[in-house]
UniProtKB/TrEMBL annotation:
Gene name of the encoded protein: TVP23A
Name the UniProt record assigns to this protein: Golgi apparatus membrane protein TVP23 homolog
Stated family: Belongs to the TVP23 family.
InterPro entries (UniProt xref): TVP23-like
Stretches of the chain forming a coiled coil according to its record: none
Broad class of where this protein is predominantly found: membrane
A GO biological process held by the record: vesicle-mediated transport
Keyword list, A-Z: Membrane, Transmembrane, Transmembrane helix
Transmembrane region(s): 33-50, 56-75, 123-144, 150-171
Subcellular location: Membrane
Length: 213
């Protein structure tokens, strides 16, 4: 009777690891500084562009300020916040033959690394998608209102932020070249589905998976 009782309880195991990991991912932001600067430069560029006439009458001063904010945003998102918040990084390089190559890095999941939080991933992708759309709205408003002196700045805003969006979408999709397939897969994973914990890369300093395109 005692042996039967032991056998019945042998297979019972309580594993709270997955529940703790899920709760951690849904809890707080692990990289508050990176999250702040992910939104700070791009939001500041938009606010400065909209309100620059209220603060200054100098077109050159407003133009340079917004362009600097856009440049800081491009660099920080491309090189810092994407790596920390979602475990992705991309760049473009020219080889000796003059050919352009896209290179994508994604951190491999490891049980020894701390998982990224859902909040960070959502903030990253929402900021990456919404801000270029706002600059597209600025483009049409500038065009229809005939404020052509701002057109070059708006085009720069669209170009810099769309480049980061395009690079990170390709990076997330593993460097797939068919843009229609990439867009469909990205929307299905990021917009229309509730992200599960396994969808998020685990940030760390090791284990980079590199794709070339």
């Amino acid at each position: 009777m005692k042996q039967a009782l032991v056998d019945d309880t042998e297979d019972v195991s309580l594993d709270f690891g997955n529940e703790e990991e899920l709760a951690f991912r849904k809890a707080k932001i692990r990289h508050p500084l990176a999250t702040f600067f992910h939104l700070f430069f791009r939001v500041s560029a938009i606010v400065t562009y909209v309100c620059c006439d209220w603060f200054s009458r100098s077109f050159v001063g407003c133009f340079v300020t917004v362009l600097l904010l856009l440049s800081f945003d491009f660099w920080s998102v491309k090189n810092v916040t994407g790596r920390l918040m979602v475990g992705l990084r991309w760049w473009n390089q020219i080889d000796e033959d003059g050919k352009s190559h896209w290179i994508f890095e994604a951190r491999k999941a490891s049980p020894n690394q701390i998982a990224a939080t859902e909040a960070e991933a959502r903030i990253f992708w929402l900021g990456l998608i919404i801000c270029p759309l706002i600059w597209i709205v600025f483009f049409f408003s500038t065009l229809f209102s005939l404020k052509l002196k701002w057109l070059a700045l708006v085009i720069a805003g669209i170009s810099l932020q769309a480049a980061n969006l395009y690079g990170y979408i390709l990076c997330k999709m593993g460097g797939e070249s068919d843009i229609s397939k990439v867009t469909a897969r990205f929307l299905s994973q990021t917009v229309f589905q509730t992200a599960s914990p396994s969808n998020f890369q685990k940030p760390g300093l090791e284990g980079l998976e590199i794709h070339k395109h």
